[in-house]
Amino acid sequence: MVIVKKTLKRILLMTSGGSAYVGIELLWRHYSHWSMFFVSGICFVILFELYTGKNKDLTIPEKCVIGSAIITAIEFAAGCIVNIWLGMEVWNYSNLPFNLLGQVCVMYSTLWGLLCLPIDFFCRNVLKIKEKYSKKLLDG
Questions:
Q1: Cβ neighbours of residue 98 under 8 Å, at least 6 residues apart?
Q2: 98: which of 2, 18, 53, 106 fits an S-S bond (Cβ 3.0–4.6 Å)?
Q3: Residues above pLDDT 70, as percent of the chain
Q4: How far is CA 23 from CA 34, 56, 124, 127, in A?
Q5: How far apart are CA 122 and CA 128, in angstroms?
Q6: Alpha helices in 53-84 (DSSP H)
Q7: What are phi and psi of 104, to 5 degrees?
Q8: How far apart are CA 113 and CA 124, in angstroms?
Q9: In the prediction, which pLDDT does 98 show?
Q10: Could you tell me if 73 and 64 are in contact, meaning their C-beta atoms sit under 8 angstroms apart?
């Protein structure tokens, strides 16, 4: 039963994170790609586990730096697969300074760090709600 609950939680988180990111990208670039739903969903699940698990007491700047590194690493791996290997041309940062193979760049890594602020806010509020209802259930 625990495995089912964890799996359902991660599916819900992936769907929420993927949908939120695609919405942001539609506002930012006016288009998105289906692969971004999965890439951002995976990032969101990992960040949620990081921000609500044993590392929940990290400072906000630490969460932003670590979150940016995680998102950038996943973006690079996904870019190598989706853009370079499969040739889908979903994004290309070649024209931006300090890029790596056109898949990641300093500007977007910085933006990913800033995006970690609302993600952390969401995670902290989910924890508060969880603790509130857990306490109510235990108290009767």
A1: 105, 106, 107
A2: 106
A3: 95
A4: 12, 27, 22, 24
A5: 10
A6: 60-79
A7: -140, 155
A8: 17
A9: 98
A10: no
